[in-house]
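Why does residue order matter? Because the sequence determines the fold. Keep that principle in mind as you read this record.
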Amino acid sequence: MKKIEVQIMQQSLLLSCPEGGEDYLREASARVDRAMTQIRDGGKVRLREQIAVQAAINLAFEMVKTAVAQKEALERAERAEATTANALAQAEQAKQLAQAVGGPELQAKCQALLERLDSALQTGKSAT
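Structure:
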């Protein structure tokens, strides 16, 4: 473990840090310092312990909010991927049916439909 010196509300602290985690610890310390300084400068809370608790709650709230947003974005992406896969499977079925059933005119119409589907799917992918 390495020792890293950081400043939180103008107080120097010596913190233990695993090898390779120095940048993460410095960034985390800077965030805590900004959060605590902002609360202190707001003027309503003066005790260092209360400032620290409020800053911790605010930072944890932001972490939870970010984690939920990331989970929701992943779920939307998975649904979009499933929808795209389903549409592609249906398009392939339509193509096979057209080839099995119809002559050149029906095949041409199906090919045009497939191209429109492909274009619509590409537009949909870029929107997500």
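The mean pLDDT is 89.
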